[in-house]
Structures are given as C-alpha cells and as structure tokens.
Design brief:
Bound molecules: phosphoenolpyruvate, manganese (II) ion
Shape: elongated
Helix content: 25-40%
Number of strands: 14
Distance between the termini: 37 Å
Structural class: alpha/beta
Radius of gyration: 21 Å
Order of helices and strands: EHEEHEEEEHEHEHEHEHEHEHHEH
Largest sheet: 8 strands, parallel
Length: 338
C-alpha cells in the first residue's frame, strides 16, 4: 500500500503516520520525492484498512500497490532511482556507467594490465570474480580473498570502483570490505537467504537476472533486497536460456524498456554473458545503449585464449576501446553520455 502525502505535509505529520503504521506491526518506507513524500507500507494489508489512514492530517490518498513487487515498483516511486558512489559516479542518470574487466581475477599483473585499459577507455568500474560460480567443480573456482585484495589495490591505484560477485551468505562481510558494489550472479538470483543478507548491506547491489527467470521474478528478487532496507539496487540483464543455441544465451533487450516501465531501478546490460562470443558483444552493447540501458558490463582479457574462464566471450583490449567509442556515438544519438 502507498500513502501519498499532500505536498505541504509537515515532518510532524509524516512522523505521526510512520508511528501509527509501526504500531500496527507493519514496515513503513518513507520516500521523499521532489514533489511530494510517499510512504510505502509492506505487510498484510488487512491490518490497515484504507478508511482511517485517509483521514490522517497530511494524507492525500491511500492506494494499494497492485504489482506483487512493491518497493521496487514504479507505482511506489515514480522518479528513477540513481545509485551514487562516494567518488561521484552515479548509475541511473544521463551518463551511462561502464564496468569492465576479466571474468575471473587470475593474477595481480593480469588485473593491472586490464585495469589500465578499463581506465583508458573511460570506464568507472573494474569487474572481476574472486569467487566464481562454475558449472563444473573441477574448473577454476577463483582466488578468494587474495583476488579481492588484488581488485581493491589495483582499482585504487587506477582510480576505479570495484564490482565483484558474492556467492555465499558467509562471505558477504568479507567481500563488502573490498568492493564498492556487491554482485549477485545469475545462478544466485533466487538464493533468498543471500538476497536478504545483502539487503542488510550498506553497499549497492548489482542483481543479475537468473538464467531462466522472468522479469517479474527478477523484480521480486530485488524486492527481497529492498524489503531488508537496501534500496541501492542496479539490475543487470545478462541473457536468458531459450531454445536458441547459436548463442550462449539469448540477449533479452526487451527487458530494458519493460523494467524501465515497471520499476524505478536502473538497469545495465552484460552482452558478454548474453552472447557468449566476443564477435557479438559489440553489436549487442550498442543495441543495449540504444534501447535505454544505464550502463554496460563487459569482459575484457589481454589473452582470451589463456583465460581461466569465459575466454571465448572476452574482448581483447583494442576491441574494448573500439566498443566504447562506438557505444559513445549511440549514446549521443539517444540523448545520453558515456
Ligand atoms: C560473471 O559476471 O562473471 C558471471 C558469472 O555472470 P552471470 O552470473 O551473469 O553468469
Ligand atoms: Mn564470466
């Protein structure tokens, strides 16, 4: 349920409503917009019959949220969410945010080489997995904390932010210490305990879409994070499983305008996992920018043939620089910047 306040509602009136809602054992979430303040109320709605709240001073109207996801819905908050980082980088504004790096952190030297390219290209985030969700238990599983240390040091030296995956509730506090943004991978999109745990984090969350999840399920996963208090969520479309097997996944660019209509959260696109092949990454990156993505995540490797994971979809540094230049032109054409 959403309580829409009058534009001249006072802080005292807001506090009074919040107390009343809490007193009923429900969770109020105050969202202060430019025009007016709204209070989202999560919990069994029968506890709160519409009638009495509408007569509270400062209340304009009380509306049920019809979508199953509440806090992340456009109904709850009409303005786009912009996720900000301490160095001034913002996700969800006019400027697109670019994230790039190897699939896995393999060694410090390799990370330095890639980070130089990432910086030169004008990207803001260094990506790289220290904990890798591999299909086979015999494949490289990541360097763990050693990899996190490399990410932090190299990114700091280069003036970049770090986004990296956390796979286990037991590692959230560890990964949080080294990164600027916690990534929830496709395979963990419905790991509800992990979602609840990162919902308690102060760091923004990058929530990748599950391999075979609908947009509604994805937004419900975002709701798990939001309902635990963390509204700094960025969605990442990374391709879904379909009957088509020419590409590793099917890059669902439909999801971008759909998410934009249904939710206020920013959304970025990962065409590396979306296509699975380096030669299709750039065309889909440009497509993603054209349909309104708020950023891109791209896998880059200095020597893809030797990569410990996802070599076939990793771009050589020069290809990544070209992708950035071309995407910039598309961004300008649709009134955005990179
Ligand atoms: C990754 O970003 O390296 C990754 C494992 O992605 P996904 O969870 O989308 O497969
Ligand atoms: Mn990968």
């Amino acid at each position: 349920m959403i309580i829409v306040l009058k534009s001249d509602a006072t802080q005292k009136q807001i506090d009074h409503i919040v107390e009343k809602v809490k007193g009923l054992g429900l969770k109020p979430q105050v969202s202060k917009g430019v025009e007016r303040t709204i209070i989202g109320v999560i919990g069994p709605e029968d506890k709160l019959s519409v009638q009495p709240l509408e007569v509270f001073p400062g209340v304009e109207k009380v509306m049920p949220i019809l979508k199953p996801y509440k806090l992340v819905s456009r109904e709850f908050k009409n303005e786009n969410t912009v996720v900000s980082f301490p160095n001034g980088v913002k996700i969800g504004g006019k400027k697109l945010v670019m994230m790039a790096g190897p699939c896995s952190v393999e060694s410090k030297q390799m990370l330095i080489n890639v980070a130089k390219v990432v910086k030169k290209a004008g990207a803001s985030f260094l990506r790289g997995g220290a904990f890798k969700p591999r299909t086979s238990p015999y494949n490289f599983q990541g360097l763990g904390e050693e990899g996190l240390k490399y990410l932090r040091t190299v990114a700091d030296d280069m003036g970049l932010l770090v986004v990296t995956e956390v796979m286990d509730t037991r590692d959230v506090q560890l990964v949080e210490r080294y990164c600027d943004m916690l990534q929830i991978g496709a395979r963990n999109m419905q790991n509800f305990n992990l979602l609840k745990e990162v919902g308690l984090s102060k760091k923004p969350i990058l929530l990748k879409r599950g391999l075979a999840s609908t947009i509604k399920e994805w937004l419900l996963s975002a709701e798990y994070i939001a309902s635990n208090g963390n509204l700094n969520i960025v969605l990442c479309e990374r391709g879904i499983r379909t009957f088509e097997d020419a590409t590793r996944n099917t890059m669902d660019l439909n999801a971008i305008p759909v998410v934009k209509q249904w939710s206020h959260l920013p959304i970025i696109v990962d065409p590396s996992h979306g296509t699975g092949s380096w030669s299709w990454v750039a065309p889909l990156a440009k497509g993603a920018v054209a349909v309104g993505a708020d950023g891109l995540m791209i896998e880059v490797h200095p020597n893809p043939e030797e990569a410990l994971s996802d070599g076939p979809q990793s771009l050589l540094p020069e290809k990544f620089l070209q992708l950035m230049e071309d995407s910039r032109k598309v961004a300008h054409a649709v009134g955005r910047e990179i």
